[in-house]
Amino acid sequence: MNTQKIPDIIVSRLPVYLRTLQRMSVSGITTTSSQELGERVGISAAQIRKDLSQFGEFGKQGTGYYIPFLIDKLRTILKVDRIWDVAVIGMGDMGHAIVRYQGFGDRGFQVAMCFDSDPTKIGQKVAGYEVRDTRNLIKDLRESGIKVVMLCVPAAAAQEVADKLVEAGVRGILNYAPISLSVPAEVKVQYIDPAIGLQRMTYYLP
After folding, report:
1. Whether 113 contacts 134, CB under 8 Å
2. Residues paired with 64 in a beta bridge
3. CATH 1.10.10.10 is the classification of domain 3-77
């Protein structure tokens, strides 16, 4: 499978399918149809079948999808059939909340390091993790081999920090700063900006 040929919009829906299937599995449901899954996630059955067909044939005519099997396949496709170590950069309110969040472990991720540039925060413990000095960011990330980072710094500092992350060998950045980053093509950036989500939502409101 050539991942470069799969449209990003399809990839973005796979975690939604996976989350829904995992919830169904916890509820004791073992099989589902594209129709039922579509109703749960708000996507048409035809679109779900089309999305999944990009990666193989996972269902059977008349019986639908066996949920444990489809969960395993989606976890493999998304490469969360293992645990990824993640570093959190910026220990303000958002960084603190992320480090304390308990929901990453069963979805393929664990916080391994956190950093800040504020001398009053460096050395403090947050959820058992010592806040490291960003002056050692490149060295610490290189030694750890961490490839995934959550960036929670102010917009004014985000690009400078992103440049250091690239130098450190990071290949995935989840950016909470309200600014677009300039990074090499091999570095994947995902943006989380609540204000953009709100603005998109209010367009539809009366």
Report:
1. no
2. 60
3. yes
Cα separation, 26 vs 55, in Å, equals 25
Closest CA to 151 of 199, 100, 81, 94: 94
Give me the mean pLDDT over the 190-202 stretch: 92
- What average pLDDT does the structure give for the chain? 93
User: 133 in helix, strand or coil?
Assistant: strand
Q: How far is CA 204 from its chain centroid?
A: 26
Superfamily designation of domain 84-196: NAD(P)-binding Rossmann-like Domain (3.40.50.720)
- Give the pLDDT confidence of 122-146 residue by residue, as tens digits: 999 999 999 999 999 999 999 999 9
Tell me the CA distances in angstroms from 91 to 24, 60, 95, 121, 165, one per residue in order. 35, 48, 4, 8, 16
- In the chain, which ranges are continuous DSSP H helix? 8-26, 34-41, 45-53, 67-77, 93-100, 137-144, 155-167, 194-202
Q: How far is CA 185 from the centre of its chain?
A: 18
Q: In what order do the strands lie in the sheet with 188-191?
A: 125-126, 129-133, 109-116, 84-89, 148-151, 172-175, 188-191
Q: What is the pTM of this model?
A: 0.88
Nearest alpha carbon to residue 58 among 30, 28, 49: 49
| Pairwise CA distance, residues 15 & 46, whole Å | 18
Give the residue range(s) of CATH 3.40.50.720 domains in the chain. 84-196
